[in-house]
Amino acid sequence: MIRFENVHKSFGPKKVLNGLSLSIQRGEIFFMLGRSGTGKSVSLKHLVGLLTPDSGKIWIDDTEISQFSENQFVPIRKKCGLVFQLPALVDSRSLYENLVLGIRHLDAVQKLARISATLKAVGLESLEKDLFERFPPSLSYGEQKRLALARTLLPDPEILLYDEPTTGLDPTTSLQIHDLIKKISKDFGKTSIVVSHDMRNALKIADRLAVLDAGRVVDLGTPEEIRRSPVAMTMAFMEDLQ
Amino acid sequence: MNAFQRALDTVKILLTSVNALARGRVPSRDIWKQLYEFGNSSIGIVVLCVTFMGIILISEYSFHMKLVIGNDSMIPGFAMILLIRELAPIVGALLITSKMGASIAAELAAMKNTEQIDAYRLLGLNIVELYVAPRTLASSVAAWSLATISLAIAILGAWFSAVVFLNFSTGPFFQSLFIFVTAGDLILMSIKAVVFGCCIPSICAHYGLQASFGAEGVGHATTDAVVGTSITVIVMDFVITYLYAVLAS
Amino acid sequence: MIHRLEALREHLRFFWMLFIRLPELFTERREFMRQFADVGVRSLSTTVTAGIFTGAIMALQFHLQLKDFGAESVLGGLNTSGTIREVGPILIAFMLAGKVGAFTSAELGTMKVTDQIQAVRCLGLDPISFFVVPRFWAVALNSILLLVFGLVISVLGGMIAVWMVADINPDQYLLMVERFATSESIFLAVSKSVIFGLLMGHICCANGYWTEGGTQGVGLAVKKTAVQSMVAIVLADFFISWIVEIIVRSGDFL
Hints:
heterotrimer; B: mainly alpha; 8 helices; C: mainly alpha; 9 helices; 89% helix; 0% strand; elongated
């Protein structure tokens, strides 16, 4: 359903993606793990057109997007929503205005209805009454991350991309966020691709995982397979868990 | 923080710096380095701006003198006086503020964010003595040097355009200059330049050290530093000019 | 040298893009109005301060010089002319470049490094339409209006200053202003205000939008905006004065 075929990407002299090949099925929760700088976030950004590959092909369903222009990505971005590592909320606009950025074409009633349902889904019902008065800086970091997730969910994309959703959060909140990812994926039938270095939670909720090193996939499989895997990098991750 | 508290803090920083310099607690290596940074970074731009302004002044005064008095032999002297007393020190100071002042605010804000300032404090080092004091001296010297050098080149530029475009001859040009420009003017310029120069690092340091967290904090600190310093320069310029005007009357 | 020319070309492209997107202000009306109000409120006090002090400084300087000449009676005319034609637009623009320009580039820069610009793109919006075009026009239009306003205030500043120092009658002063402020001078003052406004708007938006490199990048963007604005203003001032002079002189021949 989503397929990377031998994708290469460099930033100047630094080669970040070195022949990445991967395919992800519809409806699954897919984790991409790896040390910092191994190209995980970069590959996500390719799917929404924030980056273009130097070579290789990328498919979303039957559409090959590696050479798409900004305009051509507009429908893709409706299908495929990215939740950034930093909440990336617009600080100078109210919570409401932040949330509706992706759904401006709807009328006010529809907007409010969707917002209500989405806030409930991400566990932020308490904010519903203050949407017009409060601004992002007044929220805690965890709340900001949830709100950013709500914002991405509102246009109802089929595919959700999460860029390091729990980096910098304490273990309890990390667990909550991961459970939320699982709930949203299963309850709403979304495909989720999560980039992370949290192996523990990955093994808990993923359908399949890939381990990246030096810009390519070095290991791939279900949580069971990964646990027993002989691959060096995977074993290094597993050791961190002990 | 209101304006009075800010002013107080700035004066505190300035006095700490001057004290450290006077007691020889600032390594001369640091001072030389900052002198180089301040002078080198801004010289090109300051010379450019002041020279262009000098040329404009000559043609503007030409226009006005003809309007009022009908003869323009005194223009070079008149025009250059404005350059000496006002434009050279102000433009130099404002450019130093934009370049080095902004850097001071940004660097200190970043240091505050990464807790380096606290780290220094625990080691018994005072960031003002370490960072601001050498820059204060460098800024004062640089402001004066920049004003002087850019003035010299601006006079040359004005002479060039007067001779080529406005039908002046060299002799009368410089004569007019020597008649009108007094030592007092040059002293006024020097006082202004040094005063502006020495305040810039302290004001910018104040904003940098008060910065709030994150990219937004650094942005605000830098912006407020540039604005606060620019306004202070203009107001101080007015005060000095006013005192001069009152004394001269 | 080459890469400066390339940078210039990028700037020109960016400016042109912002300029022809003026109609987008109607679609993003609310955002533009909000930006316009924000910028205006923020810069009013700076403009008044800069205007008053610039007018006062120039008036005092001219007073000192004209006194030696015995031509004091024309005080009010010459210095106002000089202020609104040259020194006023430049100094007031310098102040605005700091207050508004630096602030806007810091704002856009922060948005860039915290991924807000990218996030908005992913939600299907054009970040330039949403963030940059409204700001550009808000800054440019505000600057133009405020520069003119500041110049008017500078006349007041000059009047008060010489009244305090040399006891010159305000009515007499204003009479001289009227006599010497030619329509050509006013035209020059206004054209400079327009050009300076557009330049400031462009420089702060371009530097803000192109910010890179985390929190340090934001400080760098502010620095660049402040310096580039000053240089651009001085150069533009030079060229505008020159061109207007040529136009006026050729008018003399006709």
